[in-house]
Specification:
This protein is an alpha+beta fold and 113 residues long. The protein has a single domain, classed as HIT-like (HIT family, subunit A, 2-Layer Sandwich), CATH 3.30.428. Helices cover 20% and strands 22% of the residues. The chain is built from 2 helices and 5 strands; from the N terminus they run H-E-E-E-H-E-E. It is globular. The structure holds adenosine monophosphate (AMP) and zinc ion. Zinc ion binds next to helix 1.
Length: 113
């Protein structure tokens, strides 16, 4: 049975995505609605709903998501970038499979809107 989760379905190849990186634990792909010249998402293959849902056993996995995000940013010419995880609907989360946004290629303002 296919997963109801959009990002699990991308990992499984049921929904196409522009893949940037994949290993046993992590998957990265370009955001379908980029908010910067370079905007991609890094996700754990394991389904976790968001940063609020991971436990101590997931710490290494989430660390890897962040490390891979920063490495891919450098490889794609945006070493200086914004790395963001939205946690919950009020924070702007719309897909409830943990993901790290990596955005770069334009000046970023702070605080975010
Ligand atoms: P968030 O609002 O933090 O949950 O981010 C979800 C992100 O997923 C948004 O930036 C969307 O543009 C992106 N997104 C939604 N569907 C797809 C898809 N099929 N392929 C790539 N990115 C997607
Ligand atoms: Zn999922």
């Amino acid at each position: 049975m296919s997963s109801p989760c959009l990002f699990c379905r991308i990992v499984n190849g049921e929904i196409p995505a522009k893949k940037l990186y994949e290993d046993d634990d992590v998957f990265a792909f370009w955001d379908i609605s980029p908010q910067a010249p370079k905007h991609f998402l890094v996700i754990p293959k394991k389904h976790l709903t968001g940063p609020g849902a991971f436990s101590a056993e997931d710490e290494a996995l989430i660390g890897k998501v962040v490390r891979i995000g920063a490495e891919l940013a450098k490889e794609n010419g945006v070493e200086q970038c914004r790395l963001v995880m939205n946690n919950g609907a009020d924070a702007g989360q719309t897909v409830f499979h943990l993901h790290l946004h990596v955005l770069g290629g334009r000046p970023m303002s702070w605080p975010p809107g």
